[in-house]
Design brief:
By secondary structure, the protein is of the alpha+beta class. The chain has two domains: 1-235, Gyrase A, domain 2; 255-330, Aminomethyltransferase beta-barrel domains (Elongation Factor Tu (Ef-tu), domain 3). The chain contains seven helices and 17 strands. The chain has helices at 2-9, 29-36, 82-100, 122-129, 181-193, 202-211, 245-251, and strands at 12-15, 20-25, 47-53, 59-69, 72-77, 104-107, 112-118, 149-154, 157-162, 171-177, 198-199, 256-263, 275-278, 283-293, 298-305, 315-320, 323-330. The strands form three sheets. The protein has a six-stranded mixed sheet with strand order 8-9-10-7-1-11. It has a six-stranded antiparallel barrel with strand order 12-15-14-13-16-17. A five-stranded antiparallel sheet has the order 3-4-5-2-6, with helices on one face. The relative contact order is 0.16.
Length: 346
């Protein structure tokens, strides 16, 4: 809990090196990725969140795509799924290269380390070490807006910095050459000491992302639900044709992903997979994630329920430790719904 509070109140450092990373480039790269993924492709220097679908129209892979140049892309996907993602990506390229043109694809997972720095004081820590003619404005919204990527130098380390944070706070992902990782870690820890920076683990990050209703691959996202059932229509461009689109639309909305605040026991929080019931005792869904909300001081969870029970304000019951506990469906991103915190300037 203290780690989660540290990010909300100050600044934390998270190791994200396990992310899967691929580089896709070449004359056919743009046309291929536009077909392969559901969202519009970002402009050069920007990023987006998008999905690759199965033949059945469900979610196969979640990608953060950074557009480095007109036909040069850096794809970041779930950690621990490198072989899984590579197999699907490379097979799709082999099938479509004759149609779209030459496509270069490389697994660069082990070449790049990642540190995620997040919290209200994240900008203050990075200003201590960034090499820039004007370090005070180098990380401002004007020069480095939310959902953009820039090449920067921290000390002597070249960094592909991405302004995004899975915790919902002001933050950056710092993608760096793996051989510079120890150097960068020491640099950041020294700079962060006076700002009270703490090392933060995966569980705290998991709690915080649920306060923002950020879906996680392997939990809310997977091959049993579509992005529309995950309630992510903003990342699906239905005006274009993409792989799996027709199958996704044919499935419709069988269930829907929601966020719930839970009045659970004082000494335990949900983990995920707990059953969800309507107030009349009918089983209507299940949790896919769970934890503790430092913002609301109670348990929090995400899960899938029947569409009839997916509206904010619906009262449900969660089975935990053999008992049923009250829960309420809330609007997505109950913490900072306007994203004012993550967009903060300075």
């Amino acid at each position: 809990m203290e780690e989660a509070k540290a990010i909300r109140a100050g600044v934390g450092l998270i190791d994200g090196t396990a992310f899967t990373k691929h580089r896709v480039s070449g004359p056919g790269a743009t046309a291929f990725l536009d077909w392969f993924t559901t969202n519009k492709l970002p402009r050069v220097g920007r990023i987006n969140l998008t999905y690759a679908l199965t033949e059945a129209g469900t979610t196969r892979t979640e990608y953060t795509i950074v557009r480095l140049a007109e036909d040069d892309y850096y794809l970041v996907s779930a950690g621990g799924w490198t072989a899984y993602d590579q197999d699907y990506l490379f097979k799709a390229i082999a099938d479509k290269e004759a149609e779209f043109g030459r496509i270069n694809a490389q697994d660069v997972t082990t070449q790049w380390g990642v540190f995620a720095i997040a919290g209200p004081k994240a900008r203050d820590v990075l200003r201590e070490v960034i090499k820039d003619a004007d370090p005070d404005t180098a990380l401002s919204n004007k020069r480095f807006p939310w959902l953009s990527a820039r090449q920067i130098e921290l000390g002597m380390c070249p960094v592909n910095a991405i302004r995004v944070a899975y915790t919902g706070e002001l933050g950056w992902e710092l993608h760096h050459p793996i051989e510079m990782q120890n150097y960068l870690f020491d640099l950041l820890m020294t700079a962060g000491e006076k700002h009270g920076m703490k090392l933060v683990g995966a569980r705290a990050q998991n709690w915080l992302r649920q306060e923002k209703s950020y879906r996680a691959f392997g939990n809310e996202l997977g091959r049993d639900a579509t992005p529309l059932e995950a309630d992510l229509p903003r990342f699906v461009d239905l005006s274009k044709e993409f792989h799996g689109k027709a199958a996704m639309e044919a499935l419709g909305i069988r269930s829907k992903c929601v966020t719930l605040l839970i009045d659970g026991p004082a000494d335990a929080d949900p983990w995920g997979r707990e059953a969800l019931y309507a107030e009349d005792g009918t089983r209507v869904g299940r949790l896919t994630s769970g934890g503790y909300s430092v913002a609301f001081g109670k348990s929090i969870g995400m899960g899938y329920v029947s569409p009839a029970h997916a509206s904010p304000g619906v009262r449900l019951k969660v089975r935990m430790m053999g008992d049923l506990w009250d829960a309420e469906v809330v609007e997505d991103s109950p913490y900072d719904p306007s994203n004012a915190v993550i967009r903060a300037d300075g």
